[in-house]
């Protein structure tokens, strides 16, 4: 049952209605000797997360896993509103103008993402960040005579895998730009040498290792290409870092799971794509717009729908078959609840916590693999036996990355968010 708080006027009105003077009269039928006269020993008010931890156990979720899917605080109102049946069961606006509520929710999500990324427009029709990157590459090929797609090797390996699959039969070459083993950033000389008018370039920032790329320098090189985009794997970084659109890319794509969507079993995820006015009509998926109806009232409409369900198949820009509506609604609710200041605070807490815990890890003799500046993830070396011992104790110390990067032996990607308490830090440090 929903709880609606009452003010003093509400209480007085209710008491007058039932004909009593104060709340004590409600208990007049209970003998005085049976009434509790002292205050209960209940701890003071707690925030939402600490209240949730009480029934689950204080240390039931000690996790420093990241690598593209992150655990962030989700305000209670997100579940309360998104779980309403009119949102939870709505799938896709096949009769769009009738579905004003669905259209508004998509419009709000698009507006917030465009503002956060600094781009002209956003869609709401991609499965995940990997799909968003691959679809952006196809959009680049439609827009320009591109023969090569460049992607930094420090981009999420799962993203690169999907991109490779998408490009397999296009005749376009996929070329990976190496990263510097000292800093963890892209090798600038290799990047500059690879850029050209026949190429599209995509760079992730922060990259898979959590390292911040030198975006001003990269933007200078990127202007030599026909098309370039920024990939965002951790959407919370948009609350603190310079807007990717300010560097002048053709598109900004990525993963927005961090906005109000839990990392349950690795998903569901929420891909996003934002682009310039020039490429708006080449963007896959749907774009909802704001207009007026025949009576002059504010209304929402499906401005662009470049899917094969809406237009002739040969003109469709994608066969993506969902608008990820529920995930987008959750993201919009999260952003509305947090606001600009709240999102910035969360991002700052992540950065602060990650840097503090790295200092403590260094004190116990473990050094970061890379020296470059980082957001809230960093790579350390931890052998498989030690990692297994931590996991047996209920602690997930991070994501092993040696499978994807054999040159980083025993590499472990550690992510720290606002969900990691100092007790979590202690659990990790005591067992390293």
Summary of the model, kept short:
β5 (199-204), α9 (215-222) and β6 form a beta-alpha-beta unit. The protein is built from 12 helices and 14 strands. The chain has 432 residues and is an alpha/beta fold.
Write down the secondary-structure element order. Answer: HHEHHHEHEHEHEHEEEEEHEHEEEH
CATH class of the largest domain: Alpha Beta
How many structural domains are formed by the residues? 2
N-to-C terminal Cα separation, in Å?
45 Å
CATH superfamily of the largest domain: Type I PLP-dependent aspartate aminotransferase-like (Major domain)
Overall outline: flat
Instruction: State the CATH architecture of the largest domain.
Output: 3-Layer(aba) Sandwich
What is the overall number of helices? Answer: 12
| Contiguous runs where pLDDT drops below 50 for at least 5 residues | none
Beta-strand portion reads 15-25%
Helix content: 25-40%
How are the strands of the largest sheet arranged?
Answer: 2-8-7-6-5-3-4
**What is the alpha-carbon Rg in Å?**
25 Å
Instruction: Give the strand tally.
Output: 14
Structural class: alpha/beta
Chain-averaged pLDDT: 90
- What does the main sheet amount to? 7 strands, mixed
CATH third-tier fold name of the largest domain: Aspartate Aminotransferase, domain 2
């Amino acid at each position: 049952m929903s709880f609606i708080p009452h003010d003093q006027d509400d209480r007085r009105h209710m008491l007058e209605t039932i004909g009593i003077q104060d709340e004590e009269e409600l208990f007049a039928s209970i003998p005085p000797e049976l009434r509790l006269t002292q205050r209960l020993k209940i701890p003071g008010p707690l925030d939402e997360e600490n209240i949730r931890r009480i029934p689950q156990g204080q240390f039931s979720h000690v996790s420093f896993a990241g690598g593209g899917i992150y655990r962030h605080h989700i305000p209670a109102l997100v579940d309360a509103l998104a779980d309403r049946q009119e949102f939870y069961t709505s799938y896709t606006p096949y009769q769009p103008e009738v579905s004003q509520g669905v259209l508004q929710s998509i419009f709000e999500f698009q507006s917030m993402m465009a503002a956060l990324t600094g781009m002209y427009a956003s869609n709401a029709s991609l499965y995940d960040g990997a799909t968003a990157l691959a679809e952006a590459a196809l959009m680049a090929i439609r827009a320009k005579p591109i023969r090569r797609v460049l992607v930094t090797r420090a981009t999420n390996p799962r993203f690169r895998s999907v991109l490779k699959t998408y490009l397999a039969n296009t005749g376009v070459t996929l070329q990976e730009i190496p990263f510097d083993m000292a800093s963890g950033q892209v090798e600038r000389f290799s990047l500059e040498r690879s850029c050209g008018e026949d190429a599209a370039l995509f760079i992730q920032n922060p990259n898979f290792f959590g390292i911040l790329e030198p975006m001003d320098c990269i933007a200078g090189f990127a202007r030599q290409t026909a098309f370039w985009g920024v990939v965002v794997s951790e959407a919370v970084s948009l609350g603190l870092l310079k807007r990717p659109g300010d560097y002048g890319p053709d598109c900004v794509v990525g993963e927005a799971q961090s906005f109000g969507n839990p990392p349950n079993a690795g998903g569901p995820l929420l891909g996003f794509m934002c682009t310039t006015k020039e490429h708006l009509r080449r963007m896959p998926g749907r774009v909802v717009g704001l207009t007026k109806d025949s009576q002059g009232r504010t209304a929402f409409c499906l401005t662009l729908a470049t899917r094969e369900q809406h237009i002739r198949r040969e003109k469709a820009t994608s066969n993506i078959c969902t608008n990820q509506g529920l995930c987008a609604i959750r993201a919009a609710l999260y952003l509305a609840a947090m606001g600009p200041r709240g999102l910035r605070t969360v991002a700052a807490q992540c950065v602060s916590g990650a840097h503090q815990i790295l200092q403590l890890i260094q004190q116990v003799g473990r050094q970061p693999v890379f020296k470059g500046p980082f957001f809230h993830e960093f790579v350390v070396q931890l052998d498989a036996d030690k990692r297994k011992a931590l996991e047996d104790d209920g602690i997930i110390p991070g994501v092993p990355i040696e499978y994807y990067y054999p040159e980083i032996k025993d590499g472990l990607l550690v992510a720290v968010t606002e969900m990691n308490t100092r007790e979590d830090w202690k659990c990790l440090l005591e067992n390293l």
